[in-house]
From TrEMBL:
Keyword Nucleus carried by entry: no
Localization per record: Cell inner membrane; Cell membrane
Keywords linked to the UniProt accession: Cell inner membrane, Cell membrane, Membrane, Transmembrane, Transmembrane helix
Residues of the MgtC/SapB/SrpB/YhiD N-terminal domain: 14-143
Main location: membrane
Name the record gives this protein: Protein MgtC
Transmembrane portions of the chain: 6-24, 36-54, 74-91, 98-117, 123-141
Family: Belongs to the MgtC/SapB family.
Native organism: Caulobacter hibisci
Membrane topology type: Multi-pass membrane protein
Amino acid sequence: MDAVSLQYILPVLGALAAGGAVGFEREYRSRPAGLRTHMLVSLASALLMLAAVHQLKWMGTAPLETVRIDPVRMAHGVLTGVGFLCGGVIFQQGVSVHGLTTAASLWITAALGMLFGMALYDLAIAGAVLSVGVLSAARWLDRRMPQKNYAEIAVRFRREALVDESELRGLLAGYELEGGRINQRLIEGGTLFELSGPFSGKGTLRLGELARHLEADQRVVEFDILPRKD
């Protein structure tokens, strides 16, 4: 195997390995973009950067003084295109946004593929190791860090059986939930009164217990509890 073959094969193999490492972690977590997607993104980025770095081979017999090589333009195009792909894995469910980490992993995978395509092996390998470390080890740290979690809570009562704001705050305080503003409004033609707002608590929220309490309260007609991360 000659040196010319190695300068193409090594970047491609490195890009596949880096994309596979990041993609395996995403596949293991059952995320929208998994092993194949990350490997393809990394491979495509490496191939395009290889083509840009060796752009003279495109020109054939064109005079060298007419050729202007700028691999940075290819890198810019790759990252812009991957940005559109990343947008496809981000979605909103209720008040929560999902897919941001997967989008970021696709973006860093494209960057790793480009680094391999430019034969910057030390930087590419270090980036791949750090990326996998952030995705896996940081999840362990994230579970153990003190966190404040949020939930949007709306409770609806009949007008003749009102629960005022202070009573609702007291009820939620019993489940270690606190909030700032509380919205008040009449709905259903004035037959129901709604109290709603964002509430927060430290650690795991006791939303299941709260739901069972509200379900058992005869004054409550309807309620919504929507957990989210701020």
